[in-house]
Fold this sequence. Notes:
Layout: E1 9-12, E2 19-22, E3 30-33, H1 36-51
Antiparallel strand pairs: 1-2, 2-3
Amino acid sequence: MADRTWRxxxxxxxxxxxxxxxxxxxxxxxxxxxSEEEALTNIREAIELYLEPxxxxxxxxxxxxxxxx
Length: 69
């Protein structure tokens, strides 16, 4: 699969200094980190896990294909 660029939003907590980060295009895909760099590393991993296909069960004779978009 080709690399894809995702927008992420970072916000620093004024009290703790920690960073919250989320991807607007992927609902529920959020992470955080003690630094901006750590938050970005963590959201990369979260996006990878979010996009990882779940195993599926299909009926006998069904055909599974992949399409690129």
